């Protein structure tokens, strides 16, 4: 591991806006995010696989009346988002370093109001289907931690992942409601749902002329 990564790991280890394995709150914050991390009772928005936290921080800037948590396993990535949040004194932002499969260890049933999945790895190989963040096992996980009227959003450049997700949702039609979707977000009526926040990857895809796919729905 390079010195830069070691320095970033050391930095996030000292930050109050990052929860990671080894911290006192890791595993203990389950069901108590509002109380222990944010000190309020505001809605809780989770970005899964947040990377550098651009979307998490961007939403926090726009909605100070909500709490935002970016989750990722890569500490060096979380360093960027946590640094921005710290520099801008955004006290409605936190980051959780964990595997997505372990989210239930840190969130109680129905604790989360909203979930965002932004430009995840599409996992194109058939043997990796179960690792796609919109596969049935992950949808089951999100359903557990989301409130009954909670919303899940997906943004992706990848047509195959988008179509796969719609197929999975069609198979689970009895479990979802209020499904909205488009293959070309920024030439659709749904663009307002994404609030004008663009990640580094998104800007790159748009510059290359790749349409951004988007969908949102609620679980029943």
TL;DR of this structure?
The chain is an alpha/beta fold.
Topology as a string of helices (H) and strands (E):
HEHEHEHEEHEHEHE
CATH topology: Rossmann fold
Quickly count the helices.
7
Rg over CA atoms, rounded to whole Å, is 17 Å
Shape summary: globular
Beta-strand fraction estimate? 15-25%
CATH superfamily: Vaccinia Virus protein VP39
Return the CATH architecture: 3-Layer(aba) Sandwich
Low-pLDDT segments: none
The largest sheet is: 8 strands, mixed
Q: Mean pLDDT, as a whole number?
A: 93
By secondary-structure content and strand pairing, the structural class works out as alpha/beta
Strand order of the largest sheet: 1-4-3-2-5-6-8-7
Structure description:
By secondary structure, this protein is of the alpha/beta class. It has one domain (3-219): Vaccinia Virus protein VP39 (Rossmann fold, 3-Layer(aba) Sandwich). The protein is built from 7 helices and 8 strands. It has helices at 3-13, 33-38, 54-62, 75-87, 136-145, 159-171, 200-207; strands at residues 18-19, 44-48, 67-72, 93-97, 112-118, 146-156, 176-182, 213-219. An 8-stranded mixed β-sheet has the order 1-4-3-2-5-6-8-7, with helices on both faces. Helix 4 links the parallel strand 3 and strand 4. The radius of gyration is 17 Å and the shape is globular. The mean pLDDT is 93.
């Amino acid at each position: 591991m390079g010195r830069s990564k070691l320095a970033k790991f050391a930095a996030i280890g000292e930050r109050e806006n990052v929860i990671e394995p080894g911290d006192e709150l890791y595993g203990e914050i389950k069901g108590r995010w509002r109380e222990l991390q944010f000190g309020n009772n505001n809605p809780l928005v989770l970005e899964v696989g947040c990377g550098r936290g651009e979307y998490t921080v961007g939403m926090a800037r726009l909605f100070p009346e909500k709490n935002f948590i970016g989750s990722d396993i890569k500490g060096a990535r979380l360093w960027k988002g946590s640094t921005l949040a710290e520099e801008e004194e955004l006290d409605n932002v936190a980051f959780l370093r964990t595997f997505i499969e372990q989210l239930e260890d840190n969130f109680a049933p129905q604790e989360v109001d909203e979930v965002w999945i932004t430009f995840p790895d599409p996992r194109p190989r058939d043997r990796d289907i179960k690792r796609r963040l919109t596969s049935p096992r992950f949808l089951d996980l999100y359903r557990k931690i989301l409130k009954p009227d909670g919303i899940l959003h997906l943004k992706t450049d990848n047509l195959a992942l988008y179509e796969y997700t719609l197929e999975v949702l069609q198979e689970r039609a009895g479990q979802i409601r209020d499904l909205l979707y488009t293959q070309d977000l920024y030439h659709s009526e749904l663009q307002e749902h994404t609030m004008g926040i663009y990640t580094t990857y998104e800007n790159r895809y748009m510059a290359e002329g790749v349409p951004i796919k988007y969908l949102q729905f609620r679980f029943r």
